[in-house]
Amino acid sequence: MSKIIIIGGGAAGYFAAITAAEKNPKAEVIILEKGKKVLQKVKISGGGRCNVTHACFVPSELVEFYPRGKKELLGPFHRFMTGDTMEWFDTRNVPLKIEEDNRIFPESNSSQSIIDCLTQSAENAGVKLWLEQNVQSVMTSNEKFEITTNTQTITADKLLIAAGSNPKMWALAETLGHSIVEPVPSLFTFNINDKRLKDLLGISVPMATIKILKTKLESSGPLLITHWGMSGPGILKLSAFGARILAEKNYQYNVEVNWLSKPTEKVFEVLKSAKKDLNKKQIALKSLYSAIPKRLWERLVLASNISATTRWVDLSNNQLQELANQLTKGVFNANGKSTFKDEFVTSGGINLKEIDFKRFESKMHKNLFFAGEILDIDAVTGGFNFQNAWTGGFIAGNAMAED
After folding, report:
1. Alpha-carbon gap, residue 352 to 397, rounded angstroms
2. What is the Cα Rg of the chain in Å?
3. Which of 308, 307, 338, 303 is nearest to 224 (CA)?
4. Cα separation, 42 vs 45, whole angstroms
């Protein structure tokens, strides 16, 4: 009887364990979990609702959301992707729903539904769960693997390491001959201390364009002002694709924000027309653009050297130009970063050149597999990192089930 060991009781590990056990009922499948609980990242994901995946159903489009792993995931996504994930949970009586922003959640709006589904499916398939198993080492012996934990040594015919972005697991992979791409934070918000943003916590704009000056980095999307600076999908996308560049800059750089995602020249012409149409009305009284909340509009007006009581008719062309600049190419100094919510995602991990993505198997050791964030794969926010886990777990699970 084949013994399959999976290190890591997370999304990828559970998916692989269930897949292997269901496909090969004769195999003994064991999950080794370091802690007292499993699936903790699933629990906190999506504010406790679990952002299971994203409503993008074309593999060539889906891979565009992965700054690292784009090329490698194209083939795997043709075998198992978002539609398959939705069907997998639906057939286990956990229906999913697509929200307006294309994120996919359980209809229950509770991550516990996903946790219960995975743990129950694993139990039904005969998967064994061993908690508080702190893996100390992995050795190869006669084409098998000897896994030593804090309490025992286990021999496995097949081994999957799916313990997430864990430095200890990366070090363990190195002892097996794999190389590690140095990890750096991937999803983070920008720390910006600027009087234009002070006390505007919670204010957002629906579509801003953000650039990192002196780089080619640029993204568009909703932007949220927080007590530490800037966040929101537009910022997080930029942090993911610019992870290594921004780390090299020690998280100190200038951010150019176009709050309207409109050309400066067009905004200037709109302001000139407003000067005629609004005449004696005070400029700070009401935002000219519905996308710009009134309090943010007031700050940008003041930053343009225009007093709050100035009337439109009294504005000079220079003042109008400065306001157009503030609206479309205001520069903010970023100094540091903050982790996005409680979900820490890294760029880095096992070098992708060392993995056979038809099986998620090591090219160095037969029957050694890797899946999830232990690999140098990461994505923007929106359910994509989980989809990588489901896909990798499914394919590795199928490969391990083979006799």
Report:
1. 19
2. 25
3. 338
4. 5
pLDDT digit string (tens) for the chain, length 403 residues: 899 999 999 999 999 999 999 999 999 999 999 999 999 999 999 889 999 999 999 999 999 999 999 999 999 999 999 999 999 999 999 999 999 999 999 999 999 999 999 999 999 999 999 999 999 999 998 899 999 999 999 999 999 999 988 999 999 999 999 999 999 999 999 999 999 999 999 999 999 999 999 999 999 999 999 999 999 999 999 999 999 999 999 999 999 999 999 999 999 999 999 999 999 999 999 999 999 999 999 999 999 999 999 999 999 999 999 999 999 999 999 999 997 655 568 899 999 999 999 999 999 999 999 999 999 999 998 999 999 999 999 999 999 999 8
| Neighbouring residues of 19: CB distance < 8 A, sequence distance ≥ 6 | 393, 394, 396, 397, 398, 401
Q: Which CATH class is domain 3-184+343-401?
A: alpha beta
From CA 329, how far away is CA 144, in angstroms rounded?
Answer: 59
User: At a CB cut-off of 8 Å and minimum separation 6, what does 216 contact?
Assistant: none
Residues of the chain with CATH 3.50.50.60: 3-184+343-401
CB-CB contact of 118 with 89 (8 Å)? no
Q: Which residue has the tokens 């149409």?
A: 277
- Model confidence, pTM: 0.91
Parallel, antiparallel, or unpaired: how do β-strands 28-32 and 128-130 relate?
parallel
CB 203 within 8 A of CB 49: no
Among the listed residues 53, 29, 224, the one whose alpha carbon sits nearest the alpha carbon of residue 124: 29
CB environment 10-49: b (16+ within 10 A), e (fewer): bbbbbbbbbbbbbebeebbbbbbbbeeebbebbbebbeeb
Instruction: Note whether 144 and 156 are within 8 A (CB).
Output: yes
